[in-house]
Amino acid sequence: MFSRRNRRTARPTSPALRTAWETLDAGDVPGALRQVRAAGEDQPLDEVALVVGRAAGSAGFGDLADASAALAAAPEDPRALYDFGYACVERGVPDLAIPALRAALRLSGGALPVLRELVSAYEDEGRHREAVAELARHEDRLANWPDRYLLVFNAVLGGDLELARRQRALLPDPEDERWRPARERQDRMLARAADAGRAGPLDAVDLRGWQYVLGGTVLGTLSPYGYDAGMNGRYAWLQDTPDQCLRGLLRLRDLLAATGVRPRSVSLLPDRDSRVLGLAAAEVLGLPAEPFAPGRADTVVVAYDLDGLAAHDGGPELVGELFARAPGQVLHAHACCWTDPPAVTPDSAALLHQSVVAPWGPQLRPSADGGVERGPADDRPEAEIAAGITAADPSPDPGDGDGPADDDARFAAFATAVRGTWLRGERARVRSAGPVPSSRFA
Asked: What is the DSSP letter of 127?
């Protein structure tokens, strides 16, 4: 047995994991977990469990600490491996679950509950092609729900639409009505893929196309920086400008025109950033602006950044009211984080970023001593800042010259191609970046 005394004194022998252990000695739990990740997936699982268990104990995660202790004591026990993997997924470290769940799957003879948990971990990590490979390896044993459904879903997110459509044809309607929303979501994704495929290549770098397939969001602009370095039209850290805000609003106007959507108003959300952009949107679209009201039809709800809205007083409740949108209600978000998508999926997004500072926020600027300092926020009235947006120059930034053409005609052609599926049904949040490679998932 793994005695309490041994649990206190056992230390990893792997050099990489010893470094993680020493990081825990210094009280740095996140740093220790980074060390475990950096060590790779071939480390001894009992020693990984020692480090993870100690980290979990420091964080107060008793379930993960207990599962780690059990795995450290019996690293060849399928149940201990599964429980450790399950606890890792539940505690938000699915990458640490994957080696243990792979071992549990092998030692359990391919038990389907273990396979499903492994697929869940792969999904959380955006490793959809590996999820597909595992499911396909056991295809002759899969239950239709959830297993074949998971195969179709991960095939879409992995970019293999041919496989997804073939497996979808083999998937009968679920007998359990609880799976009905999943079926409908899957069918919406495949319908959007058909439309997006007519508008563009839907290849490994078609960011706008895949953004639409995954969540129904039409992406207004593509970043002209770092395209060949793996960003593929996404921004990393961005100091936003009035010019970029206006360009995003003009793309929204083009989208509404191409799809035949005729809103009657712009709805202003209560956070300052969204109010500024909403007032500018009302001017660009030629519509009256009015405070947001849940359930109002035929309106464009304008958010600068949905995460910023969520941080506003009453923001979580407001975000909750945006999940089920009224007929003709369009949610436009100027800036969307692609590494941690907002809780609610917008219908239109001007740009994707990792970190953004609004044009009127405390932006970085050169300091008098030749360094860099953070300037003050622009505290002018909202309407005055909005007027600066509508008077800005929407000409595209040429960037570093490596990005693809993103002219208005190409965007309008895409918007026209997807008009049949845009705004159809619930817009489900998908955390994955999909099959488009990026520096984050390289």
From this structure: -
